[in-house]
Design a protein that fits this description.
heterodimer, A: mainly alpha, 26 helices, 67% helix, B: 4-stranded antiparallel beta sheet, 10 strands
Chain lengths: 698, 297
């Protein structure tokens, strides 16, 4: 069991140690205070200068014989612009008046125009294919504009010149219509007015999350190396390991220090960036708006808060990676690919087209960058999505800490003379154990979380597949994810599968308890759902989904409903959650902590956050049943029965006097259902209260 | 410890009582006549992925009684450090078992660690902490309350005459000061067993003296001491019994006097060479040559 006193001792000692190190202070304080504001100011100015440069000077290639035509059109545009605004609408308040560029004409013969553009002698080539002649009411210019759209200056020149020509064309049309006495509106049944709105902070929202991610990482790197590889290099690791402190406590203490430094570093960076923006007058450049006040200072604390889970995750990953290293230098080498690996999803998330949904919502780094952006933009992010991001990040962080603890305690890490780290992970050298470690099962759960989420997303978005097909595919995926994958890991790490999964015959009274609980647990669960629905309301769309699901289930053959929703999930989920996960956690947690943690993980794996409390309660009952009976089978039986009963209830709901379809306005169960249900549950609990007398495996 | 075992002991310096904790460590299952340290057929294989396993310790068995000083002697690469690491719970044996005062190291390494003081010549100190901060930290890690830890550290600082440098950073201490800090760290929880791995390796004469005095004093107050060294004259002077380790195996064991009589040599150095020479001709070839001490991998 983790001793918080010892963890806090280690935390305080490591914090003092790190804060006394000039290099750590430099990485944590001086870099953010000096370097990043400088970088930001520099890049903002560079972007600003570059963008104004683009507009400032435009070089247009025109055949010498057509100079007069160009000047005629250009002066016509200038005259109109001086006399009246080009549009009947005033300039939008948040758009700047366009700056007039300096136009340079270069003489280029028409047949050499394309080559001149290619050679970048001109930004744009203007070729007059035909010139107007005769009747001013029918004559026409045919002009070809040659440019390279990949070149910013080429695009910029094209935009400017096509605006000019459109303006001249419009005025000429107006003139002709007035001569012909035709109202201009008859030519324009639709008057399209383009108005661009710059979302406040939109430019900032793309840059800032990535900058913050980088800043958080930078602050955490040095302490992570110093507290792991550095300790080993200085010879203090052996001293520490010979103290009566579990490795997990050492790692947690060190990890908390790295997290603290990362969060403080991020806060310092954020404060410095804000101060630079505020006092340096960069609000406009960053927010992309003309008026001041564009920089959303109000959301900075929210961003910092959302950065904490990221700091936790990255600190844990850095600690885990550095735990492999024997020297400071080696650790630095290991960290480089990790940062690159973090930047790839971060970069993808920073693309304007990326959204906080699908697999990106559970992809480390990407989900945090996207969440920060959404918060920065003030977009309404559903609570379920925030929970998904935070829970997945926390789960990955827990796995990284567990892995770090597993590696840190390895002999080859503590003693530089004890063989290679690769040898510690070679299967033939792994000693058989009765049950897997908490670190191993946490890692499996963390890997399964995004995998199962991905499977669910793919199944639901599979075009053309009906609800029953989705259930069928889900039932096929369950044994692979929750049984075969964990079994493979148990095999590799030589854990005894029978002991781990608690494959042993249960006592009859526990079987009876499982039957009673499985048949009647839906009663308190339904009542809880009613209470919860009244307290916090239903998630939008959930009732509709329920109704659709019930309609399909009522029409499907009973055996299919029981197989897809009862037997397969009941068996597979129990083998993983109450089998592998609970077995692994019981080695390092107290009874109820292990049961509750398992139940919470079980609940979040269902991805419907409205149901998390009910699933967690179900998980606690199943975990307790498994613990009491020292066998997986009562939990499997109760789970299968519970799922089957819930799936089949709509068929008999009418006869029982219940309207189960109306979950959006849930009603309490009738007393003739509620009372017997609660009595049966109580009987089941009483029966299972006495634990199985034989010794638990291991 | 039997009188016979003590017979090999030599004249001891004047006893100076080190400070003791009122209630040091949670008591182990000790009883009269019980071995404080028991190694049973210990084997340590250092594996490598290419399959060339190295047996650094190869079926080692010995026992140390309460209040006894036992010397584990051998050249570099004999397996002394690995043995001591297995006994102190830092490494898991590949085979066999280690029991300290009735507590199996594999079953409850933390409990064993609470009851041992572990010291090597290479033990590092936290450079940015002062000796007082470092000692307080380790005292509290061993379960002492903050008040008890402060008091204990005050006593140790006084006893080991560390007042002059107790508040300086460890990074700036001299070798002798660092050694005294390390001794204080090993004694911070007043453990009944001391495991000392080459504690005088590479030290100058003065620092060497400090360490040897400390070891003798601790033995004199009844602590069980397991000392590993390749300086045989140190063992000759201080140890009640010695075990000679060669290529991971115990080739001879007894009091210094017994080993000298057995070999007919005047000094332990010569006795050791003779025993090793004999064992080379008797022992079957080891499956793989033991790696040099400190570099088995």
């Amino acid at each position: 069991m983790i001793s918080y006193r010892r963890v806090s001792l280690i935390y305080l000692k490591e914090l003092v140690d790190i804060l006394r190190d000039r290099r750590a202070l430099a990485a944590m304080v001086i870099v953010p205070i000096v370097l990043y504001p400088l970088l930001m100011v520099g890049s903002v100015q560079a972007i600003s200068v570059a963008s104004s440069e683009l507009r400032r000077q435009i070089v247009i290639g025109v055949d010498p014989t057509h100079h007069a035509s160009f000047h005629e059109l250009y002066h016509e545009h200038e005259t109109h612009a001086a006399l009246q605004p080009p549009s009947s609408l005033p300039d939008p308040p948040d758009e700047a008046p366009e700056e007039r560029p300096e136009v340079l004409l270069r003489e280029v013969r028409t047949d050499e125009m394309a080559q001149a553009v290619r050679d970048r002698l001109v930004h744009l080539g203007m070729v007059f294919r035909s010139l107007p002649s005769g009747d001013p009411l029918t004559s026409q210019y045919e002009i070809e504009l040659i440019y390279d759209p990949e070149l910013p200056r080429g695009r910029s020149a094209f935009d400017w010149l096509s605006d000019v020509l459109r303006d001249v064309a419009r005025h000429r049309v107006e003139f002709r219509m007035s001569v012909l006495n035709v109202p201009i509106e008859s030519l324009e049944p639709i008057l399209l007015v383009e108005r661009r709105i710059t979302t406040p902070g939109s430019v900032l929202s793309l840059i800032l999350p990535l900058i913050l991610v980088l800043m958080t990482i930078t602050g955490a790197i040095y302490p992570a190396i110093d507290l792991t590889a550095g300790e080993r290099e200085r010879g203090t690791l052996e001293t520490l390991m010979v103290s009566p402190v579990p490795v997990m406590e050492l790692i947690v203490g060190k990890f908390l220090v790295v997290t603290t430094v990362a969060v403080v570093g991020a806060a310092l960076n954020l404060a410095c960036v804000s101060a630079t923006v505020y006092f340096g007058g960069f609000e406009q450049a960053l927010s992309g708006r003309e008026q001041s006040g564009g920089f959303p200072f109000g959301v900075l604390p929210v961003i910092l808060l959302s950065l904490v889970p990221f700091a936790i995750l990255f600190s844990a990953v850095l600690i885990a990676v550095c735990s492999f290293a024997r020297t400071f230098k080696e650790a630095q080498n290991y960290i480089t690919p990790v940062i690159l690996a973090a930047l790839i999803p971060g970069g993808i998330a920073a693309l304007p087209t990326s959204e906080l949904q699908g697999v990106l919502a559970v992809t480390p780094v990407a989900n945090m960058v996207l969440l920060t952006r959404e918060l920065l933009l003030g977009s309404p992010v559903p609570a379920g999505m925030i929970a998904r991001v935070l829970i997945s990040t926390t789960l990955y962080a827990a796995a990284a800490v567990a892995v770090a603890a597993r590696i840190y305690g390895t002999e080859s890490v503590v003693f530089s003379d004890s063989g290679s780290i690769r040898a510690s992970f070679a299967r033939r050298l792994i000693r058989p154990t009765e049950r897997p470690s908490a670190a191993l099962v946490t890692l499996v759960a963390a890997l399964l979380f995004p995998l199962w989420y991905f499977v669910q997303v793919r199944l639901q978005s599979a075009g053309g597949a009906g609800v029953l097909d989705t259930l069928r595919l889900s039932a096929a995926a369950l044994p692979i994810c929750f049984v075969l994958l964990p079994l493979g890991v148990l095999w590799y790490w030589k854990a005894n599968p029978a002991a781990t999964l608690q494959i042993s015959a249960p006592r009859p009274r526990h079987v009876l308890a499982a039957v009673l609980l499985g048949l009647a647990l839906w009663v308190p669960v339904a009542e809880w759902t009613v209470l919860q629905g009244r307290l916090v309301g239903m998630a939008p769309g959930l009732a509709e989904q329920n109704r659709e699901l019930m309609a399909v289930l009522n029409a499907a053959p009973i055996w299919q409903v029981v197989l897809y929703l009862g037997i397969v999930p009941g068996l597979c989920e129990e083998l993983f959650f109450r089998g592998a996960l609970l077995s692994g956690l019981r080695g390092s947690m107290r009874k109820w902590t292990a049961i509750v943690v398992t139940a919470l993980v079980f609940a979040v794996f269902h991805f419907v956050f409205f149901h998390v409390p009910t699933k967690a309660v179900l998980g606690i009952v199943l975990g307790w049943l498994c613990w009491q009976s020292r066998s997986i089978w009562p939990a499997v039986l109760a789970h299968v029965l519970h799922n089957s009963v819930v799936a089949l209830l709509p068929r008999v709901g009418d006869r029982l006097g219940m309207d189960l379809a109306e979950l959006s306005t849930p009603a309490h169960l009738p007393i003739h259902i509620l009372a017997p249900g609660l009595v049966i549950v109580a009987a089941g609990v009483l029966l299972a209260r006495r634990p199985a007398s034989r010794q638990a495996p291991g | 410890m039997s009188d016979g075992a003590r017979a090999g002991g030599r004249a001891r310096p004047v006893r100076t009582e080190p400070p003791r904790l009122d209630s040091p460590c949670p008591p182990l299952h000790t009883s009269a006549g019980m071995d404080m340290i028991l190694a049973e057929n210990l084997v340590k294989v250092f594996p490598s992925p290419d399959g060339s396993d190295k047996r650094a310790v190869d079926g080692l068995s010995f026992r140390v009684g309460p209040g006894e000083m036992y010397g584990l002697l051998g050249p570099n690469g004999a397996g002394k450090t690995t043995t001591l690491r297995m006994l102190s719970g830092l490494m898991a044996p590949s085979e066999g078992r280690a029991v300290l005062a009735g507590c199996d190291v594999a079953a409850d390494a933390r409990r064993v660690k609470r009851n041992i003081g572990f010291l090597t010549a290479h033990t590092g100190l936290y450079q940015r902490l002062s000796p007082r901060e470092l000692l307080t930290f380790f005292a509290e890690l061993h379960g002492l309350t903050a008040g008890d830890a402060r008091q204990r550290v005050r006593h140790l600082v006084e006893w080991l005459q560390m007042d002059d440098f107790a508040e300086l950073r460890c990074g700036g201490l001299s070798t002798g000061q660092r050694q005294r800090t390390n001794i204080a760290r090993a004694l911070v929880a007043d453990p009944p067993i001391l495991i000392l791995d080459e504690p005088t390796l590479g030290l100058d004469v003065l620092s060497n003296r400090v360490i040897l005095d400390f070891i003798v004093r601790e033995r004199d107050v009844g602590k069980t001491v397991l000392l590993s060294t390749h300086y045989l004259h140190e063992a000759e002077v201080m140890c009640d019994r010695v075990g000679l380790l060669h290529k991971g195996r115990l080739v001879a064991e007894g009091t210094v006097q017994e080993l000298l009589e057995q070999t007919g040599e005047p000094h332990l150095n010569e006795a050791f060479l003779r025993i090793v020479g004999e064992s080379e001709s008797v022992l079957p070839p080891a499956p793989a040559p033991a790696a040099p001490e400190g570099k088995p991998g």
